[in-house]
TrEMBL record:
Subunit structure: Subunit of the heterotrimeric GatCAB amidotransferase (AdT) complex, composed of A, B and C subunits.
Gene3D superfamilies registered for this protein in UniProt: Amidase signature (AS) domain (3.90.1300.10)
Keywords: ATP-binding, Ligase, Mitochondrion, Nucleotide-binding, Protein biosynthesis
Family membership: Belongs to the amidase family. GatA subfamily.
Main location (coarse class): mitochondrion
Protein name: Glutamyl-tRNA(Gln) amidotransferase subunit A, mitochondrial
Organism annotation: Anopheles minimus
Length: 492
């Protein structure tokens, strides 16, 4: 196999000078997906659609009429985004046969920029998980695993594990994930790729099958910060079909250049993120990068986010309450799985949900309904909303002092599957989402960036968080760190 360029911009240049052809690249990616089936990154491959799009891209380049830098780049889409005429299952039996009649806005916009859609990627069922192991298609295996057999492989992280592995294994150039409490950044961290959760409302959620409406954000996974910027520029901006998007016109972010200076940039180190369970090598990486930023002229200081200790509990309660509400649409009547046991309406509902949902989804529905009971509403849901406001206020106060927060993304490198499954889904998420979920509750942008390999030869990543709509600064700082650590060159 010919090694393709690592970066989208280099790929586009190869298309322009005719040293590469979009059809040949698409065919090579499709062949690699077949060869790398044991990773279980893709749950559905759209070969015919991809090759047709590649032919259109080739025609544009031959006429010197390429649409954008993304024209001809191969992408994958998490299987909870609607894709016209391509199954969208949420890795569940409930939607196993669902074929949407429209594209999600983010998919539509990417295709308008000339990308080639290779197919749909694996996830935890309905996005409820942090390992990409709770899927009707089976678990996704991290491409950095020492052994892919049985239970000796490393988890990919979740819930967007399939998308992260697709990018890390070089099966595509970019992938869409969704991020409710870290579901883009967590797998990006474990798989050694860039993972961006934009500001809530910057990117349309239309066509993203909802998990938690007040926190869900389409996420981006790429190998480089520049590629991530290109994808964000393609998909961000107002959408009349999604009332939660901001109405202000999106201003494209330029590619981050070598000339970016850290002088005057204020970096905050949240003291609460130095927590129990933080791996020594992650802490060391955190310290090294903070010192690197300070040496380059940035101001680095400790800050406090005092409500961090309550954050994961609040997130859990609100998540389950909104899940209970969102999952009620799956009743066997309008679309999705329908049980054959229909002796009564109640029996149809009960049997449909019992057959269509796995244990994780059922547990969250039951818990959410418990929290929303009249006698529990104030005690749990209302109180959680109040504490969520305090958590958001912590960030407001922090960003009066600093421009960017630097934290770990995950507490360790990717765990072994056999160790990960020793805990239940709730406990897994409490650990895996510790550093990430607060950004979703505050609605701020956050990015995971690979920095180096651990002693086990697995990626260690750090997280950058910024104030609302400060993606430009966030990506610029991330780009500077990326050039300094050179992860993509050293380890790809």
């Amino acid at each position: 196999m010919n090694r393709l360029p690592l970066r989208v911009r280099a790929l586009s240049e190869c298309f322009r000078n005719k040293s590469l052809d979009p059809v040949a690249v698409a065919e090579q990616c499709l062949a690699q997906i077949e060869l790398q089936k044991p990773l279980n990154a893709f749950v559905r491959v759209a070969s015919a659609k991809a090759l047709k799009q590649a032919e259109c891209s080739r025609d544009r380049y031959q006429k010197d009429k390429a649409i954008s830098v993304l024209d001809g780049a191969t992408i994958a889409v998490k299987d909870n985004f609607c894709t016209k005429d391509v199954h969208t299952t949420c890795a569940s039996r409930m939607l196993e046969k669902f074929i949407p009649t429209y594209d999600a806005t983010v998919v539509e916009r990417l295709q308008a920029h000339g990308v080639i859609l290779l197919g749909k990627t694996n996830l935890d069922q309905f996005g409820m998980g942090s390992g990409c192991i709770d899927s009707i298609f089976g678990p996704t295996r991290n491409s950095w695993s020492e052994d892919l057999n049985d239970d000796r492989f490393r988890i990919a992280g979740g819930s967007s594990g399939g998308s992260a592995v697709a990018v890390a294994a070089r099966l595509c150039y970019a992938a869409l994930g969704s991020d409710t409490g870290g579901s883009t950044r967590n797998p990006a961290s474990y798989c050694g790729v860039v993972g961006l959760k934009p500001t809530y409302g910057l990117v349309s959620r239309h066509g993203l099958i909802p998990l938690v409406n007040s926190m869900d954000v389409p996420g981006i996974m790429t190998r480089t910060v520049d590629d991530c910027t290109a994808v964000l520029n393609a998909i961000a901006g107002p959408d009349s079909r999604d009332s939660t998007t901001v109405k202000k016109r999106y201003q494209s972010i330029p590619a981050t250049g070598e000339e970016f200076s850290l002088k005057g940039v204020r970096i905050g180190i949240p003291i609460e993120y130095h927590c129990d369970g933080l791996d020594t090598e992650v802490l060391e990486t955190w310290t090294v990068v903070a010192d690197m930023l300070e040496s380059a002229g940035a101001t680095v200081k400790a800050v406090s986010l005092p409500n961090t200790a309550s954050s994961i509990f609040v997130y859990s309660i609100l998540n389950q309450c909104e899940v209970a509400s969102n999952m009620s649409r799956y009743d066997g009547i309008e679309y999705g799985h329908r049980s054959q046991e229909d002796s009564s309406t109640e029996q149809l509902y009960a049997s449909t949900r019992a057959e269509g949902f796995n244990g994780v989804v059922k547990n969250r529905i039951l818990s959410g309904n418990y929290f929303l009971l009249r006698e529990n509403y104030d005690k749990y849901f209302q109180k959680a909303l109040k504490v969520r406001r305090l958590i958001a206020d912590d960030f407001v106060q922090a960003f009066k002092q600093v421009d960017i927060l630097l934290t770990p993304t995950t507490l360790s490198d990717a765990p072994l599957y056999k160790d990960f499954v020793q805990s239940n889904n709730r406990d897994q998420c409490a650990v895996q989402d510790f550093c990430t979920q607060s950004a979703n509750m505050a609605g701020i942008p956050a990015l995971s960036l690979p920095v180096r390999l651990s002693s086990r030869r697995l990626p260690i990543s750090l997280q950058l968080m910024g104030d609302h709509f400060t993606e430009r600064t966030l990506l610029a700082v991330a780009g500077w760190i990326e050039r300094e650590v050179n992860f993509i060159v050293n380890y790809n």
